[in-house]
Every structure is written in C-alpha cells, then in structure tokens.
Amino acid sequence: MPPAHHAVMNYSSSSTAPVLVVFLGLVSFLYARGWRRIHAVSTTCIPVWRGGSFLVGMSLIWVALGSPLARYDHELLTVHMIQHLLLMTFAPAVMLLGEPMLALWHGLPRYGQAVLGPLLQRPLMRQFARVLSQPALCWAVSTLTLIGWHVSALFTLALQSEAWHGLEQASFFVAGFLFWWPVIRPWPSVTSFPRWSILLYLFLATLPCDILSGFLVFSDRVAYPVYFSTSRQLIFSVLEDQQCAAALMWTCVTLVYLVPAAILTMRLLSPQSLLEAKSRPQRAPQSAEVV
C-alpha cells in the first residue's frame, strides 16, 4: 500500500471515531433506559449481570473500531485478526447474553414503538425473522463471511478501500450476531430444533476456522502480499505475523466455542433435564391420530 494511501486510511479511521462513539453511546443509552424500565417491574427478567454483559459487548466494538488498536489493522495481520475476533466472536456473544432486543424495545420512545410495532408484527417480517434464525443459515452466513473475506483479493481490497473495509467489519459483526443467535436464543427466539443439535452446530463451526488457521500457520508463503508494502518497523516478519494471527484465531475460536458446548452438555446431562426428557409425553403414531 502506498504511504500516501496509508496516511489517508489512518486519518479516515480517526475521523469516524467520534461518530462511532456517538452511535455506541446512543444504543447504550436506549438499552440502559429499557433495562431500568424492565428492572423496575421484574428483577429476574434481565439480571444485572446480563445488563453489564451487553455494555461489555459495546465496549468491545469500540476497542475493535474506535480505539488506537484500529489504526494498525492494515499494518499487522495479527491486529486485523484481533478485530475480527472481537467483532465476530466476542462482542455479539456477550451482547446477546444481555437480551438486547427486549431491552432496546422498552428503551424506545413511545412514538418509536408505535411506528415499529405494526411493522414487526406483519407475517412477512415474522417469517423472515424465523428463517433468518435457522441454525443452517446462520452457520452458512458465518462460514462464507469468514472464508470470503480471507480470500487474498477481497482481503487486499478491504485494506486499500475505506468503504470495503467498513463493509468487511460490518459483515463480521452481522455474521457473528447471526451465528450466536441459535446458541444463546435471546428474546424473541422461537426454536424448532432439539437443543442437543447445537453441539453439532458448534463443532461444525470450528472446522472452517481450523482449516483456515491451519493453512496460515503451516504455510511457508505469505498469503497476503499487501502487507509487504506497509511501513513495518517491527521485530518480526510478515510471515511470522501471519502465523501469529492464525494461531490466535485457532486458539481463541476453539476455546470460545468450547465454553457454550460444555455448559450445554452439563445442562443436557443434568438430572432435572433427564427427568424432564423421560416424563415428556410421547407423540402418538400418525396412523393413530384422530383427524
């Protein structure tokens, strides 16, 4: 990347930081307002730890996009990978733990609810939301987003264009939001799949990351030559930077996906869960049903 363009991207990124802070502050204000209204009625609906979890997620978005860290994502692949992990893996997960849809809905002013309410209640919108939350679609979107933006041509385009760079970051967050939705199942989720299937969902989600990170770690060639043209004043090479970034993704994704898998397994194997499964009435055969 030419030095002039490098400077422009630094300036452009820093100029968008105030806009990002205002946007994140507004969303946090609406969430806190809705949380207080809900908490005044029921202290168990959204506990304090869930409210704090959402705000942590908002802070992680700022770290990825508005902090000084963001200035080096086009110089170091490791920093770019940290951004990717924050936007796609960590921030969406902790935000969904905070029941964002429920709190933001109650945080909206009355005229906002009056405008959005009828729109969201339309059958087409409800059907669209139901399709969008299907695990197969969520897995496909997150996988295609991960693989697509790590193709060398698209990766280079995102580094050289501020618009494409913003689209890349937004797609990381949206894909992560969709990915974690079937796992966490916040309001207003309606599930039609067995809970144990999420274990398979999480396992399959690790495969694209394992393949991509394994390729980058063990490759003896630089996958993204664009980093050769950056102003590097570091002690490690472009190839070492690539290996460090890939190892970071490999480790973080494996550990993060292991946590909900372990929690879900313990819940499924708990005595109460097994007792409920045994006591659940069996569905009558199709031929014995009364029409």
Describe the overall structure.
- With 291 residues, the chain is mainly α.
- It has one domain.
- The chain contains 12 helices and no strands.
- α2 runs antiparallel to α3, α3 packs parallel to α9 and α7 packs antiparallel against α9.
- It is globular, with a radius of gyration of 22 Å.
- The N terminus and C terminus are likely disordered.
List the helices and strands and how they pair.
Layout: H1 3-41, H2 48-65, H3 77-97, H4 100-107, H5 110-120, H6 123-132, H7 135-149, H8 152-160, H9 162-184, H10 197-218, H11 238-268, H12 271-279
Helix pairs in contact: 1-2, 1-4, 2-3, 3-9, 3-11, 7-9, 7-10, 8-9, 10-11
Number of strands: 0
Largest sheet: none
SSE ordering: HHHHHHHHHHHH
Mean pLDDT: 86
Beta-strand content bin: under 5%
CA(first)-CA(last) distance: 70 Å
Brief digest:
The protein has twelve helices and no strands. With 291 residues, it is mainly alpha-helical.
Notable traits:
globular; mainly alpha; 74% helix; 291 residues; 12 helices
